[in-house]
Amino acid sequence: MIKKLLTVLLAICVIMSMGMLAACGGGGGTGDASDSAGTAETQKDADPAEKFTGDWKLAAAESQGVYMAGNFTELLELSDEGNGNVTLTVNADKTGVINLGDESAGFTWELKSDDVMTITPQTDTDKVGETADISYKKDALWLTIEQDEQEASLIYTKDGIFPNAKDFRLSDATPITSDKDLIGKWSLSGLKLMGIAMYGEGEALKNATNGTDMYIDFKEDGKAEISNGSGGSWEVNSEGAAITYSDSMGTHTLPVLKLGDDIVVDSSELLNGNEYLMVLSK
Questions:
Q1: Residue 209: CB partners within 8 Å, gap ≥ 6?
Q2: DSSP per residue over 12-29, as a string?
Q3: What is the tens place of the pLDDT at every residue in 236-261?
Q4: Range of the domain at 39
Q5: Is residue 162 part of a domain?
Q6: pTM
């Protein structure tokens, strides 16, 4: 079960980076949500274990500075993972349970320090002795998982909301009606898939895409150069902007809108109308 959590996390990463900009490989970089998560704070409780106990809900995931935050319940309900139950329960009697969709796994736990507990899953697929650490960081539990030399953390909060997480809302975007607002090279700075925003600062997102600078270069002649090696065309009219390109799945025309200082390519067509946004920055 513990390993499946990481498998699902990486699967989300792959899905979110598919389409015309290529595929995702792992982790990388630094996300600004780390400020809200912070470093572990030692609580002055009579019993350090008290702050761990209770019911928690998955709010975000992090791998080497790339963050994914949003409504994981909705994402699982739209996938084949079942009922969207993404909770973690820590009981005072040193037992607990992790839920992921229709699956659940019990565990026992021991304090490793005032701000870290070690859990041992009790399932058929996770042998006794295969442990994982859960760290308490500013009112959140970080379940850290290592597999195949990759490390990721699942972040749980009481209300399922990751403080100060980035979000990319199409409702905040506005039409692009001038060529000058689009011409130039724009690099990938964020993604959003069915309620989950993925982002990272600096080299984070670049590292998450196998070290490749993911970009779209809108040329003055109406052509578009895409970092995965394909090309396309773009146009701007009174109704807004769009990019057209072809791949093995056919020809796609996707709306391009302004989102603050960035642009967003509405790629929902690629996922049968399910939300899929690519955010790019200059």
A1: 17, 21, 22, 23, 24, 25, 188
A2: HHHHHT-GGG----S--S
A3: 999 999 999 988 888 999 999 999 99
A4: 2-157
A5: no
A6: 0.77
